[in-house]
Amino acid sequence: MNYQLFGTKTGLRVSELALGTSNFGTATSYGADPAEARRIWEGYVAAGGNFIDTSDAYQQGEAERLVGQFMGADRGDFVLASKYSRTASPTAALAQLGNHRKAMTQAVEASLRRLGTDYLDLYLVHLPDSVTPVAEIARGFEDLARAGKILYGGFSNFPAWRVAAAVTLAELRGWIPLVGVQVEFSLLQRTAERELLPMAEGLGLGVMGYSPLGGGVLTGKYRQGESGRATVVGAEVDSPRINTMLDVLLAVAQEVGAAPGQVATAWAKARGVLPIIGARTRAQLDDQLRSAQLQLSPEQLQRLDAVSAVPLGYPHELLAAQHNLLTGNRADRVSWPARPVA
Ligand SMILES: NC(=O)c1ccc[n+]([C@@H]2O[C@H](COP(=O)([O-])OP(=O)(O)OC[C@H]3O[C@@H](n4cnc5c(N)ncnc54)[C@H](OP(=O)(O)O)[C@@H]3O)[C@@H](O)[C@H]2O)c1
């Protein structure tokens, strides 16, 4: 396993694959039992992994409890990220839910208790509640940091403009750095490339990409008629878009002698996103860890890019079309960034 900085706002070094824990536990009746979760943990740690992603909501708090047990006395060796907004209880009172300071304050205490630690390395707001201002969230993170409960803050599933406003405000006010975002990113979900990824690059934020296998679809197993999470939750597994994508993914996998899921994860990494592996079994983890060694050629990456591209829309397409105009028809002699700076 190699290590990299998580964004450029901090010297924090994390492993190139993060361990997702939404499958740790069976409280939602689908996941890994504690013994299997421990085997997944041990495999990840043995491979050199140090970046753990969890949430109060995963398996109704069971995931955090298991992570706490597995870390034990080695807590200091891990970069531990957790999230709030949804709580561990499916029947939580309204006052406990959302992004506001009351929810944040109560949630962090509950997470710390379940995790058996007195601080989180990274605390993310899980998803927007559509009402709490980002200034309240950023100030809440600052207060938690001053109280010694978190080291850094971040955002998950937020629109880019709201993250950018919060990061800028925190910087101007001298609050703790908001260092990263967590977004869905895979060959099947690339819309983060429109605003979120350029924003992260521009502001020096680390990017954790969740669902790198599209929930398992990108392993190609549903083509073999297997069942799994996607069929259990009734997700789409064989639309024309998915099939066109899988044709190219399987071809590249065969060329490099790897499993399709490993190629999909290596592709996400090559796009500058740090994948969060979501194994449900130790065998799946071992399989996914092999993506760290996989090198795809520029030509293979280009084929995967081409088959999975999403329209960037306005204003990006207008900007691309304006190159000639803005360079006085000397576009061939002016070097542009790979993607125009908006
Ligand atoms: N911030 C957020 O809102 C958010 C949302 C989602 C996830 N996350 C984080 O991201 C992590 C990963 O997300 P994800 O679980 O959606 O990732 P994913 O990799 O897209 O999907 C994981 C699923 O793929 C299947 N799988 C994994 N490895 C496999 C293999 N080698 N062969 C065959 N099937 C395999 C398993 O499903 P089967 O059950 O079919 O075996 C597993 O449950 C989560 O654990 C969580 O930490 C964050």
Any overview of this molecule?
Helices cover 39% and strands 14% of the residues. The chain is of the alpha/beta class. The protein has 2 domains: 3-310, TIM Barrel, CATH 3.20.20; 311-342, no CATH class. The strands form 2 sheets. Strands 3-4-5-6-7-8-9-10 form an 8-stranded parallel beta barrel, surrounded by 6 helices. A two-stranded antiparallel ribbon has the order 1-2. Strand 1 and strand 2 (13-15) form a beta hairpin. Helix 5 runs parallel beside helix 6 (196-203). The longest helix has 17 residues, at 240-256. The radius of gyration is 20 Å and the shape is globular. The protein starts with a strand and ends in a 16-residue tail after the last helix. The site of NADP nicotinamide-adenine-dinucleotide phosphate has 28 residues, from helix 10. Residues 16-308 form the NADP-dependent oxidoreductase domain.
What's the structural blueprint in terms of helices and strands?
Layout: E1 3-5, E2 13-15, E3 18-20, H1 34-46, E4 51-53, H2 62-71, E5 79-84, H3 101-115, E6 120-125, H4 134-146, E7 150-156, H5 160-173, E8 178-184, H6 196-203, E9 206-210, H7 229-233, H8 240-256, H9 260-270, E10 274-277, H10 282-289, H11 298-308, H12 316-321, H13 323-326
Parallel strand pairs: 3-4, 3-10, 4-5, 5-6, 6-7, 7-8, 8-9, 9-10
Antiparallel strand pairs: 1-2
Helix pairs in contact: 1-10, 2-3, 4-5, 5-6, 8-9, 8-11
Bound molecules: NADP nicotinamide-adenine-dinucleotide phosphate (NAP).
